[in-house]
Amino acid sequence: MTTKMRSEIAEQPAALRATLDALLPRVGEVEQLAGQTRQLLFIARGTSDNAAVYGRYLAEAHTGRLSTLAAPSIATTYKRKLDLDGVLAVALSQSGRTEEIVETLAWAKDCGARTVAITNGGEQSPLAQAADLALCTLAGEEKAVPATKTYTTQLAALAVLGLGLGADVDAADLQRVPDAVEKLIAEPGDLDAIVEGLADKPGVVVSGRGLAFSTALELALKLKEACYLHAMGLSYADLLHGPIAVVDEDTPAILVAAGEGPTLAGTVALAERVTGAGASAFTVGGGTALSSVATAALNGPDLPEWVAPLGLIVPGQLLTEALARRLGIDPDAPRGLNKVTQTD
């Protein structure tokens, strides 16, 4: 039987097309609001926080704006007021109903920030209602607990945000994303080999850098949520500062990279170091440069680095779903999780 998670992975090309069709005409609205600001503050938790990491790297690498990930507890627990004049606060929530995120966005506005909401919850969701501008994704209802199409459409909304911030990129690249994702779903690469390579392992290190770091974090989260693996998501720079000691024959590495860009060479070198130490290096993306040094490889999208994360996660989603089934776990309803998580 096809799982809900697998069905929703397959719905991503259509969800991305609908979201981009709805949001690309609104670049001018983003530009007008962002013109009153100079830096960004991303407010999110969980999968949305991983999407925010992509937003941060995109903003800093391609718009020249300082960007920060918020600590919502400053607003909700410590209740400290900060000077956010000149800040564009961007809150992300799949449902638009996570009270902590709604409260933190309202706090940011009260502190002087201009505000943007990115949500699949619609214009009437509490988060959208709290924002100066709402960029609502059109992923449709997501029934599986692990987020798939709501995550990739969040990335699409962040890419549109980047265009509104004046990113030095080609907007036409976004139009190629749905087809690239469709191809990855049809041809993910060495999926079965990697599932078997992870099936008897207690843990895995997932690593990437720069714009691909968000994918590493999200894939690690998915493997924890749906497969109950001890999955550690790290920048490869942080991995080399000590945690690489945990990578061995019982703890493989999954290394993620776009097919181009300044972090690819370092990812290739890390894969060679991992296999040289006798551990398995499973890879996602990175073109032939990375796959040629891998133990087994998942394909990446034929996309420029700035939009590659919209495709890079897709083989990882397929891996998570297949590995969960291989382990006898229902990926649609992992233990201890709900679709909407409330935190204080």
Key traits:
Rossmann fold, globular, 344 residues, single chain, 5-stranded parallel beta sheet, alpha/beta, 46% helix
Describe this protein's structure:
- Keywords: Aminotransferase, Repeat, Transferase.
- Pfam families: SIS.
- It is an enzyme of class 2 (transferase).
- This protein is of the alpha/beta class.
- Helix 4 packs antiparallel against helix 12, helix 8 (149-164) runs antiparallel to helix 16 (309-326) and helix 11 (191-198) crosses helix 16.
- The protein folds into 2 domains: 4-175, 3-Layer(aba) Sandwich (Rossmann fold); 181-326, Glucose-6-phosphate isomerase like protein, domain 1 (Rossmann fold).
- The protein is built from 16 helices and 10 strands.
- The longest helix is centred in the last third of the chain and has 18 residues, at 309-326.
- The protein starts with a helix and ends in an 18-residue tail after the last helix.
- Strand 9 (281-285), helix 15 (287-291) and strand 10 form a beta-alpha-beta unit.
